[in-house]
Write a structure and sequence with these properties.
297 residues, alpha/beta, six-stranded mixed β-sheet, globular
């Protein structure tokens, strides 16, 4: 049964409110912080995200519905219906008459994981997360450029959604990613199920210390790492990418309290002297911004 779109997004937002309250209580009882302050870890490792992934990978039914599991959606797949409308507006402004074709081209992203899908306009049914990934892909092209021949490296791959969008939109084939092994495994399942040609290996950063890339990207993941891991990525990956585009939520302002244990933006720019900052549009968090660079030397 398909619910009226207004009822559906109201129901989802109400459910998420209850889950947020539940997880807040779980953190209080378990004396867990919302953010990570320990070396060698990321903010997501302070949540219930990894435990959820391990459960998903052991249960076929849950795996096919993973994009509705709140302990997973707390980190990924949490873009609201309203934010989806904002991304759709920006996509239309960028693509004009081609917007529906691009969205339909990327409809495979919603074919696995059972995401919440909304009717946005003219029977256009898509998840807000897919709209965000499409808009991000377009903004990468506009900000630093992207071509089918680029070698891309992504820090924090999620379930592979951004990679799949870049593959289908710009015909990207040379794609690497670094993340926790459990996350890599889930991403490979997702990519296989949507018939993507991209697959990720369980490889360490050190294994690629002598490799350079055309483009490095990260949707928040780099900015949520402890500073020791950030330095490792800066030395071995990011400084070896000719271009970069990272959505950040730490390093500049500290309204959320996330900055503890993380590099400041001036420290990051010591490794990336060509880096510049622009504002995130739409702004989805009080500390968010875009860090990008183009090294033409």
């Amino acid at each position: 049964m398909v619910l009226n779109v207004d009822l559906l997004h109201i129901r989802v937002e109400f459910q998420d409110l209850l889950f947020r309250l539940r997880n807040k209580i779980r953190r209080i009882v378990g004396k867990k912080s919302e953010f990570n302050f320990k070396t060698g870890r990321s903010d997501s490792q302070e949540t219930f995200y990894l435990d959820q992934i391990l459960r998903l990978m052991q249960n076929e039914s849950d795996l096919r519905n993973f994009r509705r599991k709140y302990d997973y959606r707390e980190i990924l797949e949490h873009v609201s219906y309203g934010l989806g409308k904002e991304y759709l507006k920006l996509i239309i402004e960028e693509l004009q008459d081609e917007f529906q074709y691009i969205i339909e081209t990327n409809s495979r992203n919603d074919s696995f994981g059972n995401p919440y899908i909304y009717n946005y306009m003219n029977s256009l049914r898509v998840s807000p997360t897919t709209l965000r990934y499409i808009y991000t892909a377009l903004d990468i092209r506009k900000t630093v450029g992207v071509t089918s021949s680029d070698s891309i490296v992504e820090i924090g791959v999620g379930y592979g959604g951004q990679a799949a969008i870049l593959e289908s939109t710009f015909k990207i084939r040379n794609y690497h990613a670094f993340d926790l092994t459990e996350v890599i495994d889930l991403a490979n399942v997702f990519l296989r199920e949507i018939r993507s040609e991209i697959r990720f290996a369980r490889e360490s950063i050190a294994h690629h210390s002598c490799i350079s890339w055309d483009l490095a990207i990260s949707n928040f993941a780099f900015s949520e790492l402890h500073r020791d891991l950030q330095i490792e990525y800066l030395e071995n990956v990011l400084s070896k990418a000719s271009r970069g585009y990272m959505i950040m939520n730490s390093g500049r302002s500290n309204k959320t309290g996330r900055n503890r244990g993380k590099l400041r933006i001036d420290e990051i720019c010591e490794y990336l002297p060509y880096a510049k900052i622009k504002e995130e549009i739409p702004l989805t968090g009080p500390d968010n911004y875009i860090l990008y660079w183009v090294n033409e030397s």
